[in-house]
UniProtKB/TrEMBL annotation:
InterPro entries: 2Fe-2S_ferredoxin-like_sf, 2Fe-2S_ferredoxin-type, ATPase_NBD, Beta-grasp_dom_sf, Corrinoid_activation_enz, Raco-like_middle, Raco-like_middle_sf, RACo_C. PANTHER family: IRON-SULFUR CLUSTER PROTEIN, IRON-SULFUR CLUSTER-BINDING PROTEIN-RELATED. Residues 1-88 form the 2Fe-2S ferredoxin-type domain. GO terms for molecular function: iron-sulfur cluster binding. PROSITE patterns: 2FE2S_FER_2 (PS51085). Pfam families: Fer2, RACo_C_ter, RACo_linker, Raco_middle. This is DUF4445 domain-containing protein. It comes from Tectimicrobiota bacterium.
């Protein structure tokens, strides 16, 4: 079969779906549900050949007439040519790869409180050659010289290095460089090199997100970022969320497949950074990864089965350093891989990294961290105590469950404003191209704007005023035409449906309900917060006022709300260049009490209350009440 417009050809089996064939060919097709036929995002257009489709309600009559099919529900009878339309493509877009991006708040100067001492460092040794008066063994001589550099309670060396000691010392004329790595309280001699190679020592910090993978290349001599790269997590083709991936991993022994996919992604990013900088792979001596619990399990090839089964126990929350080569990451053959600790099944190393980077655990002031996304992790506390939970918001913020929803890739509407008098919609897209859908930040903007103009009521129901020609009755009920067909990349209207609004309200309601229960359970109110930190790529593009208008964020002093960008990668970098910071992350994970929202007696009441705009208790949102003149 052939995929257009790429022109990529691949063979396809009789029982294989078009989505499975695309995955094998390395093509990224939107598939939020992981190929279960539930999301309707993997739309293709058949140009040639005979196919067999399963019946679906996710395609409208006009779509079917245009030749659209769902890739996950379609097999073939013979040779086939299909087209991947723009709205089904998963391409690069708004991936936050650097702390300088957009509105990142530079309060994270607190990394200076942790001493600079990288997890892998090189020391130059000048050893006196042996004499009759000083004829200790070569290994003891090396040990003696290394210990002159620092206080090492435990110093160990593998057989691989021991076998090379005599040769390296003599070939280097007793002047060599030793690379030292850290394994808990033990310092390990990773490698020995002739001469002085101190200036060539690098490490990689990686944020393994469910949706994206971000990597930074750091010079371990000064802690500076040399290069940064990002890409979509290639596992998205097996499912948009961690549950779908766990299910896939446990079916037909697919764990190794998912493991290899994420390893390949990390290697691709490292290769790109090495190519950009001219650095040798041999000179990368450490990799540190921060990811949610499931992503860490898949990276390490650990069985994730019990993460999703009650009582929700991962195989491990804390993992020891291992050789990066053991799992296939291509750096120095002796280089070490570190994974930041998780707290529970749904609060992982990305959140412990975020707590480190935010400074919550180093301050006496009460603060909250919200990672706005599919998993919706929240942390509250200060330097004395920390409590966390995960409020599953679902995929709506990533475009799932929304007819024209999509990730923040090229052509996604990311900003929306509506003139309430003339009902004119103004929008901005990622890449400044013709719109082909709407991403999370645009969806929340749209919800707030429609509420302000009276197009929807506080329950999210369309009010259908007669004078508004953008509101109409569609095949699935009332819908709002955001962009007419003549202005879109696909030649069809981009709309917001009643179902879309309901899914968005549930998503924002889950986040707010989680935050509300967390803070009330500790005997505080939102007004007691000194800082409310918003992290994650999606959070980076939020409009604060509009997020409060719909009730995603609490109505507090706007100065308290701080965007901290990709706190996972920033925390990972801090730990990579500071053994003290790495030890502090371990302490943070130990401090954090995991709160299971799903079994909390008040969660359902809080969630239902939050399923209004902005909330059933309008008194909790005084600025919104005033702005909208609500009673």
């Amino acid at each position: 079969m052939k995929f257009m417009p790429d022109g990529i050809e691949t063979k396809i089996g009789a029982e294989e779906t078009l989505l499975e064939a695309a995955q094998r060919a390395g093509l990224y097709i939107n598939s939020i549900c992981g190929g279960d036929g539930l999301c309707g995002k993997c739309r293709l257009i058949v140009r040639e050949g005979q196919i067999k489709e399963k019946p679906t309600t996710l395609l409208e009559r006009d779509d079917i007439l245009k030749g659209y099919i769902l890739a996950c529900e379609t097999t073939v009878f013979g040779d086939v040519v299909v087209e991947i339309p723009p709205e089904s493509r998963l391409e690069g877009g708004q991936i936050v790869i650097d702390e300088d991006t957009q509105r990142f708040t530079r309060f994270v100067g607190k990394k200076e409180i942790y001493g600079f001492k990288p997890l892998a460092r090189k020391v130059y040794l000048k050893s006196p050659p042996p004499t009759l008066q000083d004829n200790i063994s070569d290994l003891e001589r090396l040990d003696r010289e290394i210990r002159k550099q620092d206080n090492f309670p435990i110093l160990q060396m593998g057989l691989h290095c021991i076998r090379r000691v005599s040769k390296v010392l003599r070939n280097g004329h007793w002047q060599i460089t030793a690379t030292l790595g850290v394994r808990g309280g033990t310092t390990e001699v990773i490698q020995l090199e002739e001469g002085d190679t101190q200036i060539h020592n690098y490490g990689v910090a990686v944020d393994i997100g469910t949706t994206t993978v971000v990597a930074h290349l750091l010079d371990l001599n000064n802690g500076k970022t040399v290069d940064a790269q990002a890409m979509y997590n290639s596992q998205v083709r097996y499912g948009e969320d961690v549950i779908n991936r766990i299910i896939y991993a446990t079916q037909d022994n697919h764990l190794e497949e998912l493991h290899q996919v994420i390893v390949n992604d990390i290697n691709s990013l490292i290769t790109a950074m090495v190519g950009n900088t001219g650095i040798k792979l041999h000179d990368i001596t450490a990799v540190l990864c921060a990811g949610n619990t499931t992503m860490t399990h898949l990276l390490m090839g650990l069985d994730p089965t019990y993460i999703r089964l009650e009582p929700y126990t991962p195989l491990a929350n804390i993992l020891p350093p291992v050789r990066a080569a053991e799992i296939g990451i291509k750096i120095n053959n002796r280089g070490l891989l570190y994974c930041l600790p998780s707290v529970g099944s749904y609060v992982g190393g990305d959140i412990t990294a975020g707590v480190l980077a935010s400074g919550i655990a180093d301050s006496p002031d009460l603060a909250m961290l919200i990672d706005v996304g599919t998993n919706g992790e929240l942390v509250i506390g200060n330097r004395d105590w920390l409590v966390c939970c995960a409020a599953s918001a679902g995929p709506a913020f990533e475009g799932g469950g929304v007819k024209h929803g999509m990730k923040a890739t090229h052509g996604a509407i990311e900003r929306v404003s509506i003139d309430p008098d003339r009902c004119e919609v103004h929008w901005e897209t990622v890449g400044n191209t013709k719109p082909r859908g709407i991403c999370g930040s645009g969806l929340l903007d749209c919800l707030a704007e429609m509420l302000k103009m009276g197009c929807i009521d506080r329950a999210g129901k369309f009010t259908m005023p007669d004078h508004n020609d953008r509101l109409r009755n569609g095949d699935l009920g009332p819908e709002f035409v955001l962009v007419p067909a003549k202005d879109t990349a696909m030649g069809e209207d981009i709309i917001i449906t009643q179902v879309d609004i309901a899914n968005l309200i549930r998503a924002k309601g889950a986040i707010y309900a989680g935050a509300s229960i967390l803070i009330k359970s500790m005997g505080y109110s939102f007004s007691d917060l000194t800082n409310l930190f918003i992290s994650g790529g999606f959070g980076n593009y939020l409009n604060i006022d509009k997020a409060i208008t719909i009730g995603l964020l609490p109505d507090i002093d706007r100065e308290k709300i701080k965007f901290i960008g990709n706190s996972s990668i920033n925390g990972a970098k801090m730990a990579l260049i500071s053994q003290e910071a790495l030890n502090r992350v371990d302490e943070i994970a130990g401090m954090m009490t995991y709160f299971e929202l799903s079994v909390h007696k008040d969660f359902m009441d809080e969630f239902v209350s939050a399923n209004f705009l902005p909330h059933t208790d309008i008194n909790a949102f005084p600025s919104v009440e005033k702005a909208l003149k609500l009673t």
